[in-house]
Design brief:
137 residues, alpha+beta, 3 helices, 5 strands, 31% helix, binds adenosine monophosphate, binds zinc ion
């Protein structure tokens, strides 16, 4: 399979690795949004949240928790954004699941999660909530 993150995991192409265990690999983003921008990926290929096993996803999130603490200790950011995009409509570019850790400093101007909340229709919100609850397995 021609997957760039699988090739990073298998060392076929180089990366700046910061962590590895039997399930998870973490490395520096090559186009960092800020200092300390990290990517955490499962070693087993899975394109999105819909393909990854629960065990691998939990392992990725556990390493994300560990690395967020290390980023805090090393760089002392004022905040951290976690991002995990699924599908082209969600702006996912590399189709191998990854969590971004993006350290934040006030005034850094990054266009992440800075939308203006707008009021919606409460009946519609309830209707959608019902659809999701019905779909829960
Ligand atoms: P996205 O799929 O939109 O969540 O983001 C993909 C991320 O992968 C971007 O932030 C890229 O800078 C990063 N990226 C792409 N290729 C590499 C690479 N070879 N090494 C490290 N990061 C990469
Ligand atoms: Zn892959």
């Amino acid at each position: 399979m021609d997957c760039i993150f699988c090739k990073i995991v298998s060392n076929e192409i180089p990366s700046i690795k910061v962590y590895e265990d039997d399930r998870v690999f973490a490395f520096m983003d090559i186009n960092p949004l800020n200092d300390g921008h990290l990517l955490i990926v499962p070693k087993a290929h899975a394109a999105t949240i819909h393909e990854i096993t629960e065990a691998d996803f939990l392992a990725v999130m556990s390493v994300t928790h560990k690395l967020a603490a290390a980023v805090k200790k090393a760089l002392n950011p004022e905040g951290i954004n976690l991002m995990q995009l699924n599908g082209r409509a969600a702006n996912q570019v590399v189709p191998h699941l990854h969590v971004h850790i993006v350290p934040r400093w006030s005034g850094d101007g990054l266009p992440i999660c800075n939308w203006e909340p707008a009021a919606s229709d409460m009946e519609k919100i309830k209707d959608v909530a019902g659809q999701i609850q019905e779909a829960l397995e």
